[in-house]
Each structure stands twice: as structure tokens, then as C-alpha cells.
Amino acid sequence: METKQFQAESKRLLEMMINSIYSQKEIFLRELISNASDAIDKIYYKALTDDQISFNQEDYFVKISANKADRTLHVVDTGIGMTKEELESNLGTIAKSGSLAFKNENEMKDGQEIIGQFGVGFYSSFMVADKVVVYTKSLNDEQGYKWESTGVEGYTIEPYDKEDVGTEIIIYIKENDEDVNYDDFLDEHQLKTIVKKYSDFIRYPIKMDVTEQKPKSDDDDELVEVTEEKTVNSMVPIWRKNKQELTDEDYNAFYQEKHFGFDNPLTHLHISVDGMVRFQSILYIPEQLPYDYYSKEFEKGLELYSNGVLIMEKSADLVPDHFSFLKGIVDSEDLSLNISREILQQDKQVKLIAKNIEKKVKNHLQSMLKNAREKYEKFFEAFGRQLKFGVYSDFGANKEKLQDLLLFYSSQEKKLVSLAEYVDRMPEDQKYIYYASGESHDRIEKLPQTEMLKDKGYEILYFTEEVDEFAIKMLMNYKEKEFKSVASGDLDLDDEETKKEAEKQKEEHKELLDHMKTLLGNKVKDVRLSTRLKSHPVCLTAEGDVSIEMEKVLKAMPD
Ligand code: ADP
Ligand code: MG
């Protein structure tokens, strides 16, 4: 038996791994299960395509068992196994060493954090192990082998007579210390939870011996402990299933299982894309506004899977801010398991996925607005503000994407209307889209400036949220119609005759106006005659682009 050194690079990574205080040590199990699943994939494919190999569905599984007495955790698979050479090259080096290169480039950053985010495959088992032993027999070799390592010291390989093709990995779990309760990794219940959390949708059964209290027999209620082998994962990911096979209840159940919210989803989208990038996704819009939604604490993001294996619980890069209310999962076979948060941000595939999602969600909302108005309004009551923020914060860059999703309260309809609806029914002589800002619909209703417009049969949009007017300023216009505040100096309502008459009046009353201006001092900028008042003697207007309401907001903002 010979002891071999790990390659220099692997050794360094291993050192970091062992010393890692990364909190999610439990991900080692995800890595081992995903390797097992990969290995089964390989033999499964062979069995399906090679007549020489007998094929039996039940032969393909992963089995996890713990032995508290000797502190070992066993992960057994019926996959393709490894030859001696494969053991050398696969477990003696790091298959994908990109992580270490990345670590070197970012030496200043917290090393442990970075390791944790990578999930560096097989080596991650050393986060919880004093020693790891691998028994394996390849489909392509009569002889089996035993690989053993206690970490940085190196590893040994020796022949071992293993009966079945496949791999058994034995993790000698560390003793508890102040920081970590390693016993968790020997606890049946905890292990089951970890499997469910990270590997629920692995295609092959993950079996465990599950102990339960059960009545002794049909006629005897006395409880006895029964241990049975059970499959703990659900195996087929819901997002891989056919939409036609799934009911609203299925989608709701998945929403609950994933703890996306305590409510039921208002709507869901099931996306399957097979183009430049391949991915499946299930997205939800919650029915209720999450309590922290409009606060700094709120974190957007979707669960990200690489081929059925969870790689990130909240990937923010998948959703734009204006759709940050989305909950759900994305699974792509085009993503590497060992991808970091930092790399993810620049990843071309991820960008493609994000773009696709944005488009699909936009279309979904648009068709909801058209075909399920009530539902859409419910959505808009909760998340409309976010859409308006989206218009505002991107300096109008999202105009095309978002303008048709906006709703405003209308003087005419006394309910929410879209800009398209407004413009489509504008009288021919109306030039602008008029809006009025105020604290409430009631207050706006009473604004003197609205009277003339209503008389002319012009519809007015009521802005009661601070962001409304800011968003509109960014949009500038809709279908070439500019927005105009009823409070702006020039409403451009009058015909030529009225204008001339107004000029004349202005001259005639110049003295009076000047006198009033002097009296009011610097409380006002100007005093003018108005043609737009009807039953009110006077009104205040704002000069330029900023309305009185906006001015209030701007003044209240910290500098
Ligand atoms: P990755 O899975 O990203 O390639 P890992 O460190 O997880 O990196 O695994 C390294 C390699 O070791 C795998 O690519 C595979 O060839 C081999 N391997 C690991 N576990 C098993 C297993 N259970 N059965 C067969 N081969 C395995
Ligand atoms: Mg792996």
C-alpha cells in the first residue's frame, strides 16, 4: 500500500476546507448525493443503451445510513463506480479547480465564505469528517478498490474485494466542538431533513432506514418501534412535470412546502425553455404583500438548481427589481454546480435566464390584466408601487416594459384604469393625459383645477402615492401623449378667442394684479388671471415641471 500526496492545489483547498468555519457544513451531503446521482446517470445510460447489461429500475438508488456507535455515515450508490486510475485522478485532484483560482484572485476576501459558496464537491466531506473511506468497483473493472484519507496528509489506495459495482463512501464524523454539533450528521431525522432540503428532486430514490412508532398490529394499539427502508426524496421535480398533469393544488402545495409564503399564491407561471439556454421554472406571485416587502430587510431572489441540485437558495440575479415580488425556483442543466455568487452575476446563462423570466412575467401580467382584471387589480394593489418604482429608478429605461402594466384611479371611471384605456377614449380635441396629485381621491375631487377639465369631458388620473408623479415624469408620455398636471401653469385648454380675451383682461387688470402680488409678498411668485376656474374664485398652481405635491415630497427628502 502506498501513500500518495494530494496535488498541491488540492492540498491547499483541502486545508481551507478543513479549517472552514462555514456554517452550512450540511451541504457536504448534497455534494455526495449529487455525485452518486451522476454516477447512476452514467450506468443508467449504459444500461439503457447496451444490451449486455441487464436493466432493472430498482437497481438504481442511493442509500444513506448512520451508525452512531462508531460515528460513521454511509453513502452507498449503485452507480458506475471508479477504476484505480479514476480514483487517482478524480479524488486526488480537484476536477474543477476554478474555485481555487477564484480564491487566489480574491485573496483579500473572507476565504471561508468563498469556499462555502462554491460547494467543492467530494472534498466538502472533510468539513465534517476526520477520515473518509471510499469503496468502489467500476463497471469496467473486475477488481474493486479502497481509497482512504484523513485529509491533508494524503491518501492511500489498495485493492478491495467489493462484490457489486458502485461506490460506498464512509464518513467518519468529527466529535462535537464548541461551534458545531456534528452529532446532527448521525441523526436520522436531521439527515432526512437535509436530504429533503437539498436533494428532494434527485431523479433516483434516496433511501434511508426510517424508524417510526407504530401500533403493534391491527388489533393491538401498543406502540412499537419499527424500522423500515424508505425513499425520502420525491424524485420527480414538479417543474419537470407536464403542466397538463398538474393542478392548482399541486402548485399551491409546492408553494407551501417551499415556504414561499403563508398565503396561497395569487398566480403561478410554469416555464420550460429549450433554446439558447435550457431551463425550467415555476414562479409565483403571492396573494398578500409580504410584511417586509417595502422595507430594506426584504431580499428578492429565486431558488436556483443545477440539474435538480440546489445551488443557491436566493439568487437575486434572476429577477429584476421591478419584479422582486416573484417567488419560485429555476432549474437549469446548463449551470455548473460549483458556481459562486460572484461568478453567477456575470454568467451568460444566468443573464439569459433572467431576461427570459422578465419577458415571460411581463407577458403573464399583461394577459392577466386583459383576461383576469379583478385578479390583476389585486396584484396591482399589492405590488403596483414596485412597478412604479421600477419606472422611476431606471430613468424611464423600463418604459416599454412597464408602462402598460400601470394602473391609476380615474375621475371618469371611479376605478383603476390603464394608460391605454385612458388614451383610447380621449376626446379628439384633448392633447394631454391629465393627472391631479393629492392626499386622497376625495381631496383631489375637490381641487378647483379639476373642474374645467371635467366639464370639457376630459378624464383625470388621480395620483395619491408619492411615487406616482415621479414615475410619470420618467415616462414623459404615453402613445405620444404627454402627461400634464392639472396644477401646472398652462393647461393649454383655450381656443384662440379665449386666449385673446385673456390677454386683454390681463392688461385691463394689471394694476389690481400687481397690487395683490405686492400684498402677498414672497409667498407667491406671480398673480395671474385664470380662465380655468368655474365655481372657485382662486387656485394655486405650480410653475414649471414640479407640482406642489412633488415639491412637498422633495422638501421632505433628506439631502
Ligand atoms: P464534480 O462532481 O464537480 O466533478 P467532485 O469533487 O464532486 O466534483 O467529484 C469529483 C469526481 O469524482 C467526479 O467527477 C466523479 O468522476 C468522481 N466521483 C465522485 N463521487 C463518485 C461516485 N459516488 N461514483 C463515481 N464517481 C464519483
Ligand atoms: Mg460533485
TrEMBL record:
What are the boundaries of the region A? 1-341
InterPro entries from the xrefs?
HATPase_C_sf, Heat_shock_protein_90_CS, HSP90_C, Hsp90_fam, Hsp90_N, Ribosomal_Su5_D2-typ_SF
Binding positions (ATP)? 31, 35, 77, 82, 90, 96-98, 117-122, 167, 341
Q: Which species is the source of this protein?
A: Saliterribacillus persicus
Q: Which PROSITE patterns match?
A: HSP90 (PS00298)
What does the UniProt entry say about where the protein is found? Answer: Cytoplasm
| The protein's name | Chaperone protein HtpG
SUPFAM superfamilies in the record, alphabetically?
Answer: ATPase domain of HSP90 chaperone/DNA topoisomerase II/histidine kinase (SSF55874), HSP90 C-terminal domain (SSF110942), Ribosomal protein S5 domain 2-like (SSF54211)
Q: How does it assemble?
A: Homodimer.
Q: Where does this chain mainly localize?
A: cytoplasm
Q: What does this protein do?
A: Molecular chaperone. Has ATPase activity.
> What family does the database annotate?
Belongs to the heat shock protein 90 family.
State one molecular function term (GO). Answer: ATP hydrolysis activity
Keywords assigned by UniProt, alphabetized? ATP-binding, Chaperone, Coiled coil, Cytoplasm, Nucleotide-binding, Stress response
- What GO cellular component is one of the record's annotations? cytoplasm
Q: What's the superkingdom here?
A: Bacteria
- Which intervals of the chain form a coiled coil? 495-522
